[in-house]
Structures are given as structure tokens and as C-alpha cells.
Design goal:
seven-stranded mixed beta sheet
């Protein structure tokens, strides 16, 4: 999971050709390291699926099948956010947050399935920005809480979610295929009127 401090920039909302919302378009030129602009948008096309899969395979320890990705991006595309870096006119997915929202005990609950930021761009606020976009969208859709699991050893992720108001709900023993435990984290949110 990515984390780090928030970086503010100009934001705007626009519609792309496919009708999917380009959210919080935040363009930042990174002076060092030859990095390009970072923009944020929701899942929009099949190419996004393959870019997401490649990024997760490269950066996360937990493997996922294509069916897992499709379950989320096809059912909740508005809750699947991408951070896109443009270099020399070409888009590269450098961060992603995959979520869903469904009923749990008669309330609408948001769920963060995976957060990933390319290693070279961590600690720049990309993960935090993706999570905030998702929480805002979940609230606008009527979610009353947001939950997720994070490895007990992933201090960066636990720190990020703690700063965003998540609390540790319970410890899940041997939750991951690696045998690592996880914490279930929960955030109670107020619905919008």
C-alpha cells in the first residue's frame, strides 16, 4: 500500500469520452527524476484492467486472479480509481485503489480491496489521495462505514489509514496466503444529505 504526505494541487472534475468520471484531476509536474504529471480517474476501459493487474503483480505480495479484478472493476467501476503518470505522451498506471460498496447487516458498507502505488512514487501522497477520492465517493453513494484489511507488518499502510481516521476493529490470524496476519480496519462515516 502506498502512503505519505498529501500534496495539494489544482483539482477539477470532468467527464471522459466513455462517460466515466475523471475525478480530482490533479496535475503535478515532478521536477526530480523525470516524472510526469499525475492525474486521477476512475476505471474507464479494458486497457485499465491490464494496467491494474500489471501494477498489482509488480508491487503487492498477494496474488489475484483476473476474475477478482473483473468482479470489482465491472461491478463498481466508479469505485476503482487510477493514478496515471504521463511521460512523453504515454499513460502509465502508477497507483490504483479498488473498492466496492454493498449491503452488510442492512447498511451500505464500502470496502477497500486493494491499494497499490508504484514503489518509486511512494511517500508523495498518491495513496492518500486515492483513498480520499474513494471515501468521498462512498459517502456520496450512501455508505455508512468503510472497511479494509491491512497486513500487521505494513506500517506505512497502517499509518496512512490511521491518519485518515480508520480504527483497528480486529486481528485476522493467518489472513494472507503468506501466513501473515491482518488487521481489519474500519471507518465510520456520516452520510451526505
Amino acid at each position: 500500500a502506498g502512503g505519505g504526505d498529501a500534496r495539494s494541487g489544482s483539482t477539477a472534475t470532468a467527464e471522459n469520452e466513455g462517460g466515466n468520471e475523471a475525478v480530482g484531476i490533479e496535475k503535478e509536474k515532478e521536477a526530480e527524476g523525470g516524472q510526469g504529471e499525475i492525474t486521477y480517474r476512475t476505471y474507464a476501459k479494458e486497457e485499465d484492467l491490464y494496467a491494474l493487474m500489471s501494477l498489482v503483480d509488480q508491487e503487492l505480495s498477494e496474488p489475484y486472479s483476473i476474475f477478482t479484478y473483473r468482479y470489482f472493476v465491472y461491478n463498481w467501476p466508479q469505485l476503482c480509481f487510477l493514478a496515471i503518470e504521463e511521460i512523453e505522451g504515454k499513460e502509465h498506471c502508477v497507483g490504483a485503489l479498488v473498492c466496492k460498496a454493498d449491503l452488510h447487516k442492512q447498511i451500505l458498507r464500502g470496502y477497500v480491496a486493494m491499494l497499490v502505488v508504484e514503489r518509486r512514487l511512494r511517500k508523495r501522497g498518491i495513496g492518500k489521495h486515492l483513498v480520499k477520492l474513494a471515501i468521498d465517493r462512498m459517502i456520496s453513494e450512501g455508505c455508512l462505514e468503510v472497511v479494509l484489511e491491512a497486513e500487521v507488518t505494513n506500517k506505512a499502510a497502517l499509518n496512512l489509514y490511521s491518519k485518515l481516521g480508520f480504527i483497528r476493529d480486529k486481528r485476522l490470524y493467518k489472513y494472507y496466503l503468506t501466513g501473515t496476519d491482518a488487521f481489519r480496519l474500519k471507518l465510520a462515516v456520516a452520510p451526505t444529505a
